[in-house]
Amino acid sequence: MDLDSTSEIKSYIFLIVAMLMIIIPSSLFRLGSYFFYHQQEQILLKKGVSDLFLNENIAINNNFFKTFNKKFKFIFIILLILMFSSFLAFLLLTIDLLITKNSYNATFLKYIFAIGGIVLFIVELCYLLRIMSVRKEFKIWEMKNKDLHDASLFENLVTERNDDILKIFLQSYFEMSITITILNNKISLKFKNWREWILKSGRNFDDEFYYFLIFNYKKVSINGKLFSIEDYAYIYQNRNKLFNIDQPQEQSK
């Protein structure tokens, strides 16, 4: 085997390693994409919710912030791993293209995967910055929430029966959507078998459902309809009926 052939083989081996650095983390992400994607998008749908609660002097249970912090840490770590892997692959491929003489095919493939690596890095960075902005908002909200005076707790609000929202939550499927200002884009988050998903989350049921129900009600619709804070408080107060849990439940007034 001549020197050029050996160099070519080494070049392809290097390319394969770089490809795996991009493909394996991305594939693992896709395998858990339903869980990860929904956790991430739920955080984004909560952006701006603090103003709604603070302006109406409505306090929330501190367990909400504990639940949020746990989810944020998980997503933060996953995104950092993906970002590190994709950027490292881009960096190694770029250095190799600058210092190594490759065949046309090897050079073309390395360019493709180098571009793919940096694009993936930028996408992950954008997601990270978006959830970081929500985390910053919630840190301020948590401090202000403790200082509220004569505030009503979300779960103790006086509510009235709302059959429209009740029918939606009695279904096994619904869609949460928000229209963002950039090019008037609509982001939709679909929940299938959402009750089972919450019950099997491995966390405290009440805390998980509480977290699930708090988001930006003025911008986020469910099945195309907007509802008020009191409507979602009504759903929380009747959670045992929704989940067929045989426990005493709070009655709406």
SSE order and pairing:
Layout: H1 3-31, H2 33-45, H3 49-55, E1 58-59, H4 63-99, H5 104-146, E2 152-153, H6 163-170, E3 173-179, E4 186-192, H7 194-199, H8 205-213, E5 220-222, H9 229-237, H10 239-242
Parallel strand pairs: 1-2
Antiparallel strand pairs: 3-4, 3-5
Helix pairs in contact: 1-4, 1-5, 2-4, 4-5, 4-8
Keywords: Membrane, Transmembrane, Transmembrane helix
Transmembrane segments: 12-37, 74-99, 111-129
Overview features:
elongated, 253 residues, transmembrane helix, mainly alpha, 8% strand, transmembrane, 2 domains, membrane, 65% helix
Describe the structure.
The protein has 253 residues and is mostly helical. The chain folds into two domains: 5-154, no CATH class; 157-242, no CATH class. It is built from ten helices and five strands. The protein has helices at 3-31, 33-45, 49-55, 63-99, 104-146, 163-170, 194-199, 205-213, 229-237, 239-242; strands at 58-59, 152-153, 173-179, 186-192, 220-222. The strands form two sheets. The protein has a three-stranded antiparallel β-sheet. The chain has a two-stranded parallel ribbon with strand order 1-2. A hairpin with a 6-residue loop joins β3 and β4 (186-192). α1 (3-31) runs antiparallel to α4. The radius of gyration is 24 Å and the shape is elongated. The chain crosses the membrane at residues 12-37, 74-99, 111-129. Keywords: Membrane, Transmembrane, Transmembrane helix.
